[in-house]
Amino acid sequence: QVQLVESGGGLVQAGGSLRLSCQASGLTFTSYAMGWFRQALGKEREFVATVTRNGATTDYADSVKGRFTISRDNAKNTVYLQMNILKPEDAAVYYCAAGLAPWPSSRYASRGEYNYWGQGTQVTVSS
């Protein structure tokens, strides 16, 4: 069955960096756009970043532009989220997701476009 397994979360000081990874299995990875979402305590899950199936095009939430970078390694079935200059408001559970991509340019900011989700990894940012 399809599995998305996130790793790399943890506790970091404000201004620091973390790199999240999401290993996919049980699906044809290159057929899927990938995304990262996050959910803070008491808040709705929100879009963070997405990347096309070949990694050529990315989109970001305004709140993370210039600080976060999404990338993928199709040979390793893995998507990454490099997070720099972390702020306390970035603290959340981070989820990766896979959405079937019929076009090379397909990438999604909407939760409803994603078919599969990981279990999440906690990111805590101390001020």
Characteristics:
127 residues; four-stranded antiparallel sheet
Strand content: over 45%
Label the structural class. mainly beta
Order of helices and strands: EEEEEEEEEEE
Total strands: 11
Shape: globular
- Kindly, what is the distance between the CA atoms of the first and last residues, rounded to a whole number of angstroms? 40 Å
Runs in which pLDDT lies below 50 for 5 or more consecutive residues are none
In round numbers, the mean pLDDT is: 98
How is the main sheet built?
7 strands, mixed
Helical fraction = under 10%
Work out the radius of gyration: 13 Å
How many helix segments? 0
Care to describe what's here?
- The chain is an all-beta fold and 127 residues long.
- It is 0% helix and 50% strand.
- The chain contains no helices and 11 strands.
- The chain has strands at 3-7, 10-13, 18-25, 32-39, 46-51, 58-60, 68-73, 78-83, 92-100, 116-117, 121-126.
- Strands 2, 4, 5, 6, 9, 10 and 11 form a 7-stranded mixed beta sheet that branches. Strands 1-3-8-7 form a 4-stranded antiparallel beta sheet, with no helix packed on it.
- A hairpin with a 6-residue loop joins strand 5 (46-51) and strand 6.
- The protein is globular and about 40 Å long.
- The termini are far apart.
